[in-house]
Amino acid sequence: MSEATSRRWRNQHGGLKAEQAKRLNTRDDENRQLKEIEAKQLREI
Q1: What pLDDT digit, counting tens, does each position of 20-39 carry?
Q2: What gap in Å lies between CA 35 and CA 28, rounded to an integer?
Q3: Among candidates 10, 33, 5, 32, which has minimal Cα distance to 20?
Q4: Does residue 16 contact residue 24 with C-beta atoms inside 8 Å?
Q5: What is the C-alpha to C-alpha distance for residues 12 and 31, in angstroms, rounded to an integer?
Q6: Domain extent listing, the chain
Q7: Residue 20 and which of 6, 26, 29, 38 are 20 to 30 A apart at CA?
Q8: What is the value of pTM for the model shown?
Q9: Where are the beta strands (DSSP E) in 1-45?
Q10: Is-contact 21 13, C-beta < 8 A?
Q11: Does residue 11 register a pLDDT over 90?
């Protein structure tokens, strides 16, 4: 990986390490799914 690519990645992810960013993305996905479920349930009421 080039230095520029590495620098850009760190800037985009706030200095997180790869494993931390992966966990954060997983949590974001889970939160998005839960919000969709909640919205669906609210529409059914």
Answers
A1: 888 988 999 999 999 999 99
A2: 11
A3: 10
A4: yes
A5: 21
A6: 3-44
A7: 38
A8: 0.61
A9: none
A10: yes
A11: no
Rounded distance, CA 30 to CA 26, Å? Answer: 6
Q: Which residues contact 16 (CB under 8 A, 6 or more apart)?
A: 10, 24
What is the four-CA torsion angle of 11, 15, 21, 24, rounded to 10 degrees?
Answer: -100
Buried b (16+ CB within 10 A) or exposed e, 29-41: eeeeeeeeeeeee
Residues 6+ apart with CB under 8 A from 23: none
| Of 44, 36, 9, 5, the residue nearest 28 (C-alpha) | 36
- At residue 5, the pLDDT reads 85
Residue identified by tokens 């990986």 is 1
Which pLDDT value is given to residue 43? 95
